[in-house]
Amino acid sequence: MKNILIATIVLAFSLFTYNSYAAEVDLYGSVNYKVSNDDNTSGKAILKAENNGSIIGVDFSQTLVEGETGGLSGFGKIEVGIDADDSGSDLLDSRLAYVGVDAGVLGAVSGGRQSNPHAGVSKTNIFNVYGANATFTYADRSSNSVKYSNSIGPISFNAMGVIDGATGKDGLDVTDLSASMDFGPISLAGGLVDDKVNNVTYTVASAGISLVGIDLAGTYSYKDTTTTDLTGLEYTASKSFGDTTFAVGYQDKEGTASYITYGASRQLTDDLLGYAEFQTTDNDTGTDTTQMAMGIKFSF
After folding, report:
1. Distance CA 46, CA 259 (A)
2. Structural domain boundaries of the chain?
3. For residue 188, what are the β-bridge partners?
4. What is the phi/psi pair of residue 129, to 5°?
């Protein structure tokens, strides 16, 4: 599988670079590595150096028809996760692979393995290692999906359906909707997922505001099952001083734990980021734990 993914990325990049007069290609990625000292469930600290979400991907697009209202263009993406520490055959992990058509003011339609709209609603996901513990979501990415995206004025919205015949359900197995709007220093977003296969719904709402140079954000999430209803709350605040940013967050996930997260990061160059984070976890049951990590990330 990894050989197929590598060959696909190399072929796509080579093909569209050779035909650069007809298509726009953006090769991107990041190498992210950390050293952490996290307590296990018994409260014993475990020191570990490991990969922290490194990726590589290709965005490509091509204008099909030019027009005053945006014309018509084709686009696609191939993105894989890279685990540089893997000693077996799982160096690459499938993340995104989709293709679509953008009709300007009429919106864009795409199909493949794509990001779930509601998973991008949270404005409290600002840390590099920890944080973002109390948002109930269906999934970050889904295969067998079709998505429609558009913007009207300041409002952007997405509608995605997952159609997976293996579940034995007819029609849409999962529907995922999101909408967002920015006006001035305030940003709002919301998402709703209906998992028809498992009879579970997820609701996420998030808001952010910038006041006197301090970025404040809050996220509410709600998981409704046939037997249990659970809520999650997250709050964050961050402040930048030049190239250095300090952040703090509080998360409360019903039925699991509450968390306090502290972080500091510094942009060492335009592409190189250094970071350090500390988190305390107050578990509803079992031993309370602490987590700490530091790392470095190069993006291109």
Report:
1. 19
2. 33-53+63-72+105-299
3. 181, 207
4. -125, -55
Give the containing element (helix H, strand E) for 75. strand 72-82
Q: Map tokens 């084709």 to a residue.
A: 74
Contacts of 79 (CB under 8 A, 6+ apart): 55, 56, 57, 58, 95, 96, 97
Dihedral (Cα; 267, 271, 277, 281), 10-degree rounding: 140
In Å, how far are 158, 178, 273 from 192, measured between CA atoms?
A: 11, 6, 33
Taking the CA atoms of residue 197, residue 231, residue 125 and residue 261 in that order, the dihedral angle to the nearest 10 degrees is -140
Over residues 255-283, mean pLDDT: 98
Joined together, the tokens standing for residue 93 give 């992990």
For 84, residues 6+ apart whose C-beta sits below 8 A from its C-beta are: 31, 33, 51, 54, 91
Q: What is the pLDDT of residue 74?
A: 96
Give 193-221 pLDDT, tens digit per residue: 999 989 999 999 999 999 999 999 999 99
pLDDT for the residue 171 = 78
CATH 2.40.160.10 is right for the domain spanning 33-53+63-72+105-299: yes
Structure token pair of residue 52: 């922290």
Phi, psi of 178 (to 5 degrees): -150, 155
pLDDT at 69: 67
Give me the sign of the Cα torsion angle 176, 52, 8, 22. positive
Distance set, CA 232 to CA 137, 287, 288 (Å): 10, 21, 19
Distances (CA, A) of 292 to 30, 251, 280: 22, 17, 9
pLDDT at 61: 95
- CA dist 62 and 114 (Å) reads 19
Predicted TM-score of the model (pTM): 0.87
Rounded to the nearest 5°, which phi and psi values hold at 2?
Answer: -65, -35
Give the other-Cβ count within 10 Å of 206's Cβ: 23
